[in-house]
């Protein structure tokens, strides 16, 4: 089978690298945790890594540079300066980029998202402080736009994942939002428990995001950013109601079908897409 | 030249931070503020060209979608402005990350002395008096201990000038200098100790003098150019001998007298007899205990190839002064302990326990910070410390009591994991050898935290030096954590320990005992700013630093990895076998002390302990007739501050980072009821879990600390078992917080009683650890939880905290797929109460609500309880149990309600079925806090097998889970005494704090 290599960024306060790396491996990728300095040339000798060796690039969650000047802002500035052209080339070469939480924040500040006209350098979307004014850890229900071009969400229509952020509110000029919706770049939206739109209602929409936006992709569907954490649903016991589900199954004489959590499907989609390319 | 960049959100965007301040101003003070908006300020004290300034502004610090900015005042349409900035020398992480970004952008470092500082300007609209604005500034936005602020009135505002340039640069203009200290007499040294805040103990002074006056010592000292002791040397001795580092109280000699029987007992070291002895015994019996009693944290086996690491401590005094800074420093600090255990472990979990005064306290005393503000700050500190470290915080406790107004308690607990072997060596072993380099990694050294250890060993008063308050920096530490794990895995670490209390003095001093000596060149220690004296460099508690022994052949690789992670590492000296701690500054010796000095016979502390049993103290059971309105009573109980819903705290804490979450802090259908314990899956490719729980029951201390301690340990054990923990693997961590026990007829007239309380607590600790088979993997004691609060007439009143033990239990779950949560699962399931209910309401919530203390405090009988615990483990292993919940504070009625609320179901319960209820009144059966009990629910078809597993145990089938949402309890005669819709109970439970986010 075709080897799919994934690079998970680490260092400078990023922190979801282990479980993201694990999730990619579960999904069949050959994943590596790589320090940002190894990519941008600060590291010496054998510690040097180039982006060209990989097909999936992950901007994972965390608090890069402590997030003191806007989440993902300093990380984007650093990568733009040292890796800007390479990143654009990576995307144009048909590879995949996913930004999760802090990574999503970095992608919009880099301009890789929304990436209108595949220009990849305009800051048109911001991810700012939750309306409630505080960090929140909560599981949310997400509606997945099946019409979106996003390769990561193929075959998914609804998902439950945890959000964990203080700055997750997606904002942009009305024109940008309109274009995102029209181009079918809005991939995930917060929903009520019944799967219908949250319409801004707390706690279903945990941050006040415009149009309940939880995740967007670029026009090609190969760059994806989302606030919820798919890598945190890597095992069925991650789900908040798993003991209830287990008990219900056991009364029917059954056990859980898969040990994997549903979040893994996002990464499987990425691997399958690249294998099929 | 200085430049000031002002950044604000665009007009049309809501300002969540400003809205938060506005809400607090209204809720806390009743101020009608129309609107508050925040302006972020970056003050750049550097030579920068116009072009560079523009780049900095547009390419980094202004988000074109949401923000606008200018190098000029941007405030507009306000009535008041409040500017808040840090005081010089206070940790400004935002300033240093801004500097990092600017240097990267410009491709060149800032010049010497140049820096970037952050501050904030609050734009306030509304008709407020100057006094009101001052309160918002001083009581909501800033704490004078670490911050400075300025208020601008609309009329006085000069839009050209703005706030001006306030640059909090540290300028000491001081040439470092070693002072020699005369030791002509004990008295003289005592005076100097007082004057210099050395905190040398009176009883140690003769030993110290004797050492420096010895002929052989003097002769040796001459060879290095020393005679009288230097300030560096005395500071070193003082740090090492402080109660915080040396646990003099727990190692003291207690003469315990029972005032009732007249019987006298001597206890030579509580540590040796009640902690060390039982733990060593356990270690023989339990092969999973890997390393205890010596390192920064205890080590237990997780599986064949991995060890877990656990420890806990408190950060009370600093949090009491500066809640946010103290708490974040506490949690970030405890994370360094597992990093410095063995050859270093990866952090996998943090936990917290907060004890504060009543949130709405409006009594006559004036604490330094109001409990509400204190709690807000503590919560935020632990939030940022944990979240920004990428470590899940899946469990925590909060307790309100007026007696914590004197000093709040902030408990922090940390867990790590490490491979069992690093190359050929066991990971829990480490040593320093002559020739190893002493490397300091992480942050730099400043004046912060100086005399922190000694300040923690004193009660809080207005004279406590504020210099010991600092702000932890999880960003710097996270980088260091990632670096050290890589260095460990490459076998580059010979020894590692953290710089916490006492700084280098403790970390180098203690690690040098292994090699038997060290030589440190203090001028090599990287400083935040010039002008620190040698003794300050040596004992500074600047955070985020580790001390590592690196072998010469590993140095290059170690430094290369350090650079890869952008972590600063510096060789500051080397370990030797000279038998001396030898410190130099620019080649001149400033300390030369024999390593064995600290092992010499310093006099043991002595305490008199006098115990008066509760009956003798006049305690009795209250006289209360059977309540007629049990529905209202249960609702009132559920809304008591220590029983009600406090979810707003847990929701701010990331408990799922690392992807390991199995049992979350909040469980049930709507994920809003606290779990008994947390379970994580620290190795993502393994099905083994680590269960952790904690308990706090200080109210029982008022009756008898022996039973407080046993009830606390029992509860922590039951919590861990309730989720599926293994009773054969129970690790314990004891964190004591105690008021001063040293008797003084004026300052501490009840010191002897408090000492007896401590002795009894330790006896219970010993008995319970032996009874349940719990080795104490780690523990700390924090004495002096007293405060002297300002009263309305210019007096100061001493307020002593309750004798408190936070007990942590760790356990291993062989298969996480078997874990159980506390929520009732399905209608039709049977409800059982395991364990007997006795007339034990003393010190409990029901009596507290009735404004009574009582006498019959819950007691623990390990020999009776343990068989039931083993049976429970068996039943969970066999998959017979749908939900399990430990009954604790508040008793059966409260906890049955929680189980029903979590499952969003009704219940029909018959008290007649409860084991032991026959001799009790309904109120006693409902609210007794007897230990050893669980509530479980199970599918009816499993009832037979379940009852078989529990045969011989005191259990009772008490009722059934119902679809109908009614919560019904019948008394022992079958009379319905509680009949209320479960939702209504939940509303009561959420009423006090349900609105907080």
Q: What features would you describe in this structure?
A:
The complex is a heterodimer of chains A (277) and B (997). Chain A is built from 7 helices and 11 strands. Chain A has helices at 17-26, 36-40, 73-92, 102-110, 174-182, 242-251, 264-276; strands spanning 5-10, 30-35, 56-59, 96-100, 125-128, 136-144, 158-165, 169-172, 186-191, 213-217, 223-226. In chain A, the strands form 2 sheets. Chain A has a 9-stranded mixed beta sheet with strand order 2-1-3-4-11-10-9-6-7. A two-stranded antiparallel ribbon of chain A has the order 5-8. In chain A, a hairpin with a 5-residue loop joins strand 10 and strand 11 (223-226). In chain A, helix 3 crosses helix 4. Chain B is α+β, with helices and mostly antiparallel strands. In chain B, a hairpin with a 5-residue loop joins strand 26 (666-667) and strand 27. In chain B, helix 10 packs parallel to helix 22 (751-772), helix 19 crosses helix 28 (982-990) and helix 21 (705-722) packs parallel to helix 22 (751-772). The two termini of chain B are 43 Å apart. At the A-B interface, helix 1, helix 3, strand 5, strand 6 and helix 6 of A face helix 1, helix 2, helix 3, helix 15 and helix 18 of B.
